[in-house]
Amino acid sequence: MPPRWPREPDRNDPAYRKLDDRMNFAIHVAIFAATNSGLWFVRTLQSQNWPWTVWVTGGWLLLLVVHAVYIFALADYSNSTASDKLPKSS
Description:
With 90 residues, the chain is an all-alpha fold. The protein has one domain. The chain is built from 3 helices and no strands. The longest helix has 32 residues, at 14-45. It is elongated and about 55 Å long. The chain starts with 13 loop residues before the first helix and ends in a 5-residue tail after the last helix.
């Protein structure tokens, strides 16, 4: 059963942004896993060695870790909007 949002989806809603960011991260993890498992499977079948697969997997994994750190540690899902953060003129 797919997740259902109880109200109209709005990117300004902090709870919706948090859920959306986490679902995007899950999709990125799934694409990483599927692509790299296929890449390493083909590498094992080849008679020649593909040394670049280590760099592709390592670089992509690093980007995935950075994405995870941002989503789970740094992202601010407070209720404030961009107009609230502007300095008030007197």
